[in-house]
Predict the structure.
Amino acid sequence: MNEMKSELEIFREFLKNKGMRYTPERETIIKEIFDTHDHFDVDSLYISMRQKDIRVSKASIYRLIPLLIEANLIEAVFFEGGQMYYEHIYGHEHHCHLRCINCGRIQEFADPRLRDIEQELADRFSYQIIRHKLEVTGLCPECRNRQD
Ligand SMILES: [Zn+2]
Ligand SMILES: [Zn+2]
């Protein structure tokens, strides 16, 4: 059986290959990130850890984020209210985001036609396509109703 490696295992190997240490603080933050099954930003992650009496520094979280991105475990998905939001990508179906600019609500969607566009781009520009990211902004049904 081809069992999937856990995010922690992947990250431990990633750090090892980079000659970096896998510290208890790093592990604490990563566990918290992978227990968060939603889009997250550093500030709210930090606040929720403090509320649970988990002591880490915000600077450590900020330092960890680029490493998790480099290890292909998370991705920056959108920027809102001065904060960058991230989500897990490892083991998750690829999807795009429709975001309400008024209340911040996120609708995730996937559309197979985007794969055709990728293929067209690959042919047109002789690229090997790796990923795409699509964010569409608008007003959600509730915010639209409130406007009327
Ligand atoms: Zn809204
Ligand atoms: Zn998402």
